[in-house]
Amino acid sequence: MSPKVFIIILNWNGCNDTIECIESLKKVNYPNFSVVVVDNASSDSSIDIIPRKYRDISFIEVKKNLGFAGGNNIGIKYALTHEADYILLLNNDTTVESNFLSELVNAAEANKKIGILGPKIYFYSEPVRIWFGGGKLNLLRTKGTHADYMKIDNKELAAKMPVQTKYITGCCLLVKKEVIQKVGLMSEDYFLYYEDVDWCLRVKKAGWQIFFVPSSMIYHKQSRSAGEHTFPYIYYHSRNGLILGSRFGATTLTYLLSFWIFAKQIIKLFIGYNRNWARPVIKGVVDFWLLKRGKLEGYY
């Protein structure tokens, strides 16, 4: 029998996107998977519509927004108690190719050293343009970036063989059960952004490899829940990158970098340049210094 995969979809006020995602999963040709939707305290019609429309999936309602890691961890714990061999995290604002899961599982089963792996991800609105083609990290490990971001891809000529990469985005991430049992769940210190990188680095430190599987393909609508360049988006990227660097990079250099970032943003405020960006960055740096982790209060 094929290994059992639990697909965890985290929903927060994204009923229509989640429905489209579930519908796309109906065409998946992998024979042994279950879908779990974790609702992260939505205020839209999600909790009324989704469980009624899909009687064959598990729906878990959370009473408060636990963030990306917290919400997914609820689903992961559920999957582990229901005999999961693999767990796939899948953003609700995605659609998938029919063979995406088979390609991921086949790659994982072929190499016992692989702990986490993920697909090639295209923009939903432009299905030949790459959103994620593997993960890259800067030297201080304070910033993760997407390989081949915005590149136009020729799907027929593109490489198909799995390759090692620095990290896999939590937008679509397949992890083996035994990896979680040894390394633990995702860190909830970040609330949003960089918890996937943190997890991959912990998994790699424990001896497993991280692989990108380009023959597996999905499509992403991009930042539907947080909104790019909003206060929380900038705040979480600023604070969480520093948290990551302090844990996995050079801690002293990370703190020196944080002082430089802070000074630069103070100058921007003083001269009136890009103040809407400077304020959340300053807040993020200060909260990093104060060891404030988790959710930014006052926002969803």
Automatic annotation (TrEMBL):
Tree of life domain: Bacteria
GO molecular function list: glycosyltransferase activity
Keyword Transferase found: yes
Domain Glycosyltransferase 2-like intervals: 7-183
UniProt-listed SUPFAM superfamilies: Nucleotide-diphospho-sugar transferases (SSF53448)
Keyword entries, A-Z: Glycosyltransferase, Transferase
Pfam short name (any one): Glycos_transf_2
Protein family according to the UniProt entry: Belongs to the glycosyltransferase 2 family.
Protein known as: Glycosyl transferase
